[in-house]
Automatic annotation (TrEMBL):
It comes from Ficedula albicollis. This is Myosin VC. Coiled coil: none annotated. Pfam families: DIL, IQ, Myosin_head. InterPro entries: Dilute_dom, IQ_motif_EF-hand-BS, Kinesin_motor_dom_sf, Myo5c_CBD, Myosin_head_motor_dom-like, MYSc_Myo5, P-loop_NTPase. CDD domains: Myo5c_CBD (cd15476), MYSc_Myo5 (cd01380). Belongs to the TRAFAC class myosin-kinesin ATPase superfamily. Myosin family. The lineage of its organism: Eukaryota, Metazoa, Chordata, Craniata, Vertebrata. One of its GO terms (molecular function) is ATP binding.
Amino acid sequence: SAEITKNYKAGDRFLHVQLEDGTLSYPVDPAALPPLRNPDILVGENDLTALSYLHEPAVLHNLKIRFVESKLIYTYSGIILVAINPYKELPIYGDAIIHAYSGQNMGDMDPHIFAVAEEAYKQMARNNKNQSIIVSGESGAGKTVSARYTMRYFATVSKSSNNAHVEDKVLASNPITEAVGNAKTTRNDNSSRFGKYTEISFDQSYQIIGANMRTYLLEKSRVVFQSENERNYHIFYQLCASAMQPEYEHLKLVPQHCSTLINCTVSGDFQMDVFKMLAAILHLGNVEIAAVGDERSSISAEDKHLSIFCELLDLNCDKVAWWLCHRKIVTTSETVTKPMTRAQAANARDALAKKIYSHLFDFIVDRINQALQFPGKQHTFIGVLDIYGFETFDVNSFEQFCINYANEKLQQQFNLHVFKLEQEEYMKEDIPWTLIDFYDNQPVIDLIEAKMGILELLDEECLLPHGKDENWLQKLYNNFVNKNTLFEKPRMSNTSFIIQHFADKVEYKCEGFLEKNRDTVHEVLIEILKESKFHLCANFFQDSPVSVSPFSSTINIKSARPVLKSSNKQLRMTVGSKFRNSLSLLMATLNATTPHYVRCIKPNDEKLPFEFDSKRVVQQLRACGVLETIRISAQSYPSRWTYIEFFSRYSILMTQQELSINDKKQICKIVLQRLIQDHNQYQFGRTKIFFRAGQVAYLEKLRSDRLRQACILIQKRVRGWLQRRSFLSTRRAAITLQQYFRGQRTVRYSACSGEAHRSPILCFHLALNLTHLIKVFLHLPCSFSLLFNRVLESHFQSQKEIYEKEIEGLNFKVEHLSQDINHLQKLFREENDINDGIRLEVSRLTSENLVSSRCRSTTQMCLWHSECCGNVFEISRLKQTGPYLKPRGVVVNMIPGLPAHILFMCVRYADYLNDADMLKSFMNVTIDGIKQVVKEHSEDFEMLSFWLSNTYYFLNCLKQYSGEEEFMKYNTPRQNKNCLKHFDLSEYRQILSDLAIRIYHQFIIVMENNIQHMIVPGMLEYESLQGISGLKPTGFRKRSSSIDDTDTYTMTSVLQQLSYFYSTMCQNGLDSELLKQAVKQLFFLIGAVTLNSLFLRKDMCSCRKGMQIRCNISYLEEWLKDKNLQSSNAKETLEPLSQAAWLLQVKKITDDDAKEICEHCTSLSTVQIVKILNSYTPIDDFEKRVTPSFVRKVQAMLNNREEVPQLMLDTKHLFQVTFPFTPSPHALELIQVPSSFKLGFLTRV
C-alpha cells in the first residue's frame, strides 16, 4: 500500500504516492484507478464486511494483518467464517474457551469456530429448526479439524442427562473414520479422502441423543495406487505396526514403523474380523501375476500371499487363482471363458481389492451409526458437512471432476442463501430492494448433469461393450465445443477437456473416466466371495446383505430406513449416477436447514506456521466464494451501522443545536444529510443506516480532522495558559522587587531630606546609584535571583510569625476541648458501670429463681431438653425442627449461630444423661436434616448462608466444649464446667466439617451463578468513564451491546450484587474469616471472567478500554475498603486483570518499554501477554498498533519464565476453604430462645 501525496484530478496520468522506501509517480489509467485502501482504524477488523472499501486487495490485506501480525486465524466475512490453518497448535480450544463462547452472541466475541457452533445451537433452540455447518476448503486447509471442533463443542455444551454418554460416542467415532478414510498426501498428513455429513440429533431439551453419518465418494483407487510421497489409508500402517503382537500374528503381516492401532470402541470379535479383511486386502495386493505369452497370465500355486488371502477369507485358493487370470463371457447362446493378459489380470486383482475395501468402509460406518442409534424420535438436528473443496491439480481425473461438481452445487446453494439474506435484510429495514447481479453457476451445473450432459454421455459410453475414454471424449467435443462457452478443447491435447468452473478453469484428462465410473468386478469373483465361509466377507456381496450397511459406497442414508432389495438396474448404476443422486439428497437436506459456512484456507504449501502466501490465499478465496460474497455486498450498501453506533462514533461531528434534540435517530439523520450531500450514498432503515462503499472511510476522515482540530485548539489554549502563568509569575516578582526598592528608596530619601541642608547633592547621587543598581540587577539574572530570594525570605518570615500566633490560639482551644471530652467520657463510663451492675444483679436473681424452682439441677448450668426428659422421641422433634430453625422475621439482638447453640445444648443434655443411643440418634438426624434442607434449597442463597454459618458454629461448639486442652484454653472457667463429660465426638466433628465444605461449595456456586452474567457487561462493556470510548464498525455480525438496551448491566449492578451478598452473610452471622474467603472467591471470578473475555475480544483491547477496566477495578477496591475487607486478599486476585489494563495503556515501542512490561506483568503468562499485544486495537488514528517486532522482543525476554502455556484462567477454580476455630464468647446459661423459633416444647433444666 502507499499514501497519495498529491490530490488526483481527472485527466492526470500519474499518481504521486509515498511508499515505505521512497516516493513514486505511478502511471494510471483514468478508467481504472487503483483501489483505495481503508483507513488504519478499519484495518484488522473482525469482519471483512466492516471495511469501507470492499475489494480483493483490501480483503487480502485485512486477512494478512490479522493472521501474520495479530496471530488470529479466524475472520468473519458476512455469514462466512474464514479459518486459516496456522500449522501450529494454539491454546484456543480448551473447555474454558468453550464455556466462554457458550451463550454469547456471535458478534460479541472474536471470530471462532466455537462462535459458529454456538450460533447454530442457539438458532436450533430458539427457532426449533434444523441447522447445518458446511466446512469446505482445499486438502490441508483444516476442514477435518474444524468439523471435529464443532462436534466437540456440541458434545460439551449439550451433555445428555442420562448415563449413555452419547456425546462421547460421537467424538469417539472420529478417530475410527479417520483411520479408515484418511491418508497422507503431499498437501496434508491427515487428508480426508471422502466426504462426510454427520447429523447430531437432539431431544426437546436440546441434549444430544444420537447421531448418524453419511459418506460420499471414498477414494478407492488409493487402496491400490499412491502417488509419490503419498501413502495408503492410515489403518493399513497401524495394522502393520501391530503385526508382532500375539493377537495379530495369524494375520502374517510384516511390521512397519507407524503408530499402533487405534482403540476402537467396538467388540473384540468385530475388530478382529475387520483386521482380517484389511490383512486380506494387503496380501491380495502382493499377489504376483506372471505373463504367459502375450494373451495369457497365471498365478503360481506357491504364491504365499494368495494362500494367506484365501485362508483369511476362507476361500477356495484354486478357484481364486484361476478366475483372477480368466473372465467369463456370457452370450445368448453360450458361455465362453477367456484368458486375460497380465495387465488385465492385475486390473482385476486391484478392482477386487478396491471393492472389498469399499464394502468394509461402508460396513464400519454402518456399525458406527448403529452404535449412535437412539430410541424414539429426534426433535432437531445439526448437520456438520466435512467435504472436499474445489480442487485443481496438474493432472485432474474423475475424482476431481466429481469433487468440483459437488462444489458447484454447494456454491449455488451458498449464492442463493447470501442473496436471500441480503433481500431479507433490506425488507426488514424497509429499504427499497434493487436487484443485485450475482454469479449464477446454473449453466455449468447443467453442462454436467442435464440431459445429454457430461455425466449422461459418460454413463451412455459405459453401457457399450467396447466403450472407450477416447470415444466418450469425442462425443463431448461434438456436443459442446463452440456450442457451450463453459466447455473448451485444449489447443495442444486431444485427450483432455476444459470446464470453466465458478472458481477457475480446470483441465481434465479423460484417461480412466470410464473404468472409474463403471467400478466393476468380474461376476465370477463376486460369486466366489459370496461362497466364503467367513461370514463378514460373504455378507458383503449378498444381494440382500445381513448386518451390513445397505448403502452404496458413495452415500450412507439413515439406517432407520428399511433395506430394500435393489433391482438389477440399480446394481448396475455407475459411480457418477450414484454420486449425483447422493448429492441431490444432500442438497435437499441442506436446503431444509439453516446453513452456516466455514471456509478453510491453506496459507502456504510448505506448511509453515503463520506464513502468508498472498497468491495462494486469493486463489482459495475466489474458489470458496468469499470474494463473491464481498462483491455482492459491495454492489449495494456494504457498511451498516445501528443508529446508536453511529451516534456514539460520530457525536464529535454534531453541533450543540443538533445534540439538543432528544431523538438520537433524528439527530443521526440530520447530521448525515449535512455531512454527505449525495443522498444516494446512504439509506435510512428502521434500525440501521446503510452506506455505500467508501462512505464510512469519508466519515472517518471527517472525524479524524475534527479530532486533529480539537487537539490543536487544546494545545493552543494550554500553551497560552502556560505562557500567561509564566508571565504573571514574572510580573508578580517584578512588582515585589519594585516595592522593595521603592521602600528602600523612600527610607533613604527621607534620611537624605533630614540632612538636605548639609548634603543635597549626596541624596541625589544615592538615587542615581539606586536606579543604576536596579538596571544592573535586571541585566544580571544571578544577582537578580539572589536579591529576589532575600525579598521572598523576608516576606515568608513575616508570614511565619503571623501563622505561629494563630497556631498558638488554636492549640489553646484544642486543649480546652480535650478537657471537656475527658469529662464527658468519665461520666459515660460511670453510667455504663451502673448499667452493667444492674444487668448482673438481674442475671443473679434470675439464676437463683431457676435454681430454687428446679432443685434437681445441681450443676447450676443452663440445659435444654424435652418435656419428657428421658424420651428420645421428644428430642427427635428438635432434630426434625432444627434444620428449619431459620427465623422468618428479624430477631433483635439474636446472637450469631443461635440455632447451633441450641443444637449443641441438646447434645450436652444427652451427654448429661450419659445416653449414647440418644446422642447418636440426635447427631445422625441433625446431620441428615441439614443435608436435606441444603438439598431442597440448593439455589437459595440466604438459606445456604444461614446453614453454612450455623454448621460452622455447631462445629465450633463441639470443639469448644469437647474437653480437649487445645480448645479449653480459650474458655472461661464457667464455660469449662459445661464441657462434655462422657463422649468423644471427634468423628462427628469430621463429618460436620465435610458437610460444611459441601455447603460452602454450593454457596459459592450460587453466588457465582447470580453474578456471572453481570461481570462482562459491567466490568468490560459498560463505560464507567463516560465519553472516552468510541464504537467501531462491526460489519455483518453486530454486537448485542450496541443495541440501546435499558436492562444492560453496569458496574453499579455488580457492586449492588456484591453488597447484597455481603449484607446477607452478615445478617446470618457468617464468621468474618469465612466471609473474607467467600469475597476472595467472588473477586477471583470477576477478574478471571473479565480477563478471559478480554482475551477473546480484540475490539476491547485498546488504551481507552484499559482506562475503563482500571476505573472499574478501583470501584471494587473502594468497595473492599468500605466493607473493611482489605485483609481478605481479594484485591490480589484482581492483579492479573489490573496488569492487563496497565498493559493496554502503557507505551509499547522501545526496548525500555518491553523491559518494563516484562518486569511489571508478573501475574500474566507469556501466552497472555503476547495475546494482548497481538490483539491491541487502536480506536483512533492517534493510537499506534503494536509492531510484530516489538511482540517478538517481549516474547524473547519472557522465554526464561517457567510456566504453563495456558491462555484462559480457570473460572471454576476454587480456593481451599479453611474453617478457623473461633470460640463462642456467649455463656450457655444466658442464651434465650426467641419465640419466632416456635420451640415451645423445650424447657430449661
